[in-house]
């Protein structure tokens, strides 16, 4: 159980927020003319004299529209200048939780224990109720200034460079778009009572037409520990998403009526959840800290569905998968399918990539034993947990366990990154479950080579031994394979074998060229353009013709598509 949460709250440290919400409440008493003046005030703010302070801008606006303000605004507000300043702060969302704790913000959140959080949400004497009162009870107005929790991560910042991806074992599910609060309460209670997810906290959302549901799992669960031992952002997000999507399927199997009510953006563990004041505690708030969700059951069900979909896709491309398995000596259909998917976007040959990677590792290892500068470079980068974590993530996705085994060769002796009993050994623990299928087919070993090629000797070694890029090698090997297929089918035909398919070669080449066009969509675009004019062969070099074309016929054109048909 998570005893406390990081509380992304601004109203507890910035009392000006109350004044801004009060200014909003006072604006509701203005006449139509007064509201038009406020609209004009907001419109002039972005184009103000930037040398003026905000309060001086307010003073300037008051002097400019003094008569109209005295007639339509002053009678309704205590102090005009303060009202304008605070209303501007409300409209510009100064101090709003998500703005103050933005993804580049340096502000750190404080902690709040769960019991104090519940009091804030349900006790009318606490600050959340005061915040609501300041806005005149307007739930929409107060929402952006409400405090928030990042329920799934134990981190006190949203600054990406400092965020800690330590999962709390908690998940938020957000339901909205109900017609009113009564309907939202009905479904909140029904899901609480009948769902096998066992949520431990549910409450009506800030605007009253939805509800939020928190689930927590036993963080000592073996499957949870295995999935979230890493604090690598990509790994944490992937495993979080697997449980979340599995839980949503579980919910919808029981309550199909809620299909369009679930906000799936909460599958992101970095998302903040607003915490409102719940006026009707008896109906709009349910809490039982002893309820636990079954992590293993949900995850196993979801992974089973993922694998079922994977094998369905493999079956659709069985011929291509079998060919890759045969050509590259792969025994796993899954690995062959990922390569097939990868080849759709980039030329890729596992055998060539593996050979190159192992030889570079071997060269770097030998070099570091001879050269103290290289030894220092290797020690600096390959004894760094962050570097190893990032490289192992990419390389395992491309090359599998072989990648981790070879990276370990570069880790200095005596390093805790090599100690299986040390927490920093976590970088070596990888599983294909850490990746989505989309990620697997897009990964390339480029980050590793970008790092090691900083050494001139390694850069030279790669150039000398792999002068033709792996991409070029793969292209050549691919075309050779197509030709071998053609020869094999010709021989089969000569033997009278009815399995001969002499068109397979043409099909492969056509598919290859189509991929090229996909990678270079401009080719297709140019081929489809109808020319506006045609030049004779000699006219290309005629200065007068070209001058007339650019200066007289198309004086306003700045970009031309020129296509030569081999001099015709």
Question: What are its keywords?
Answer:
568 residues; mainly alpha; Alpha-Beta Plaits; 6 domains; five-stranded antiparallel β-sheet; four-stranded antiparallel β-sheet; 27 helices; 6% strand; globular
Provide a quick synopsis of the model:
The chain is mainly alpha-helical. Helix content is 54%, strand content 6%.
Describe what you observe in this structure:
The protein is mostly helical and 568 residues long. The chain has 6 domains: 4-110, no CATH class; 150-296, Alpha-Beta Plaits; 317-341, no CATH class; 349-467, no CATH class; 472-528; 529-568, no CATH class. The chain contains 27 helices and 9 strands. The strands form 2 sheets. A 5-stranded antiparallel sheet has the order 7-4-6-5-9. A hairpin with a 6-residue loop joins strand 5 and strand 6. The mean pLDDT is 87.
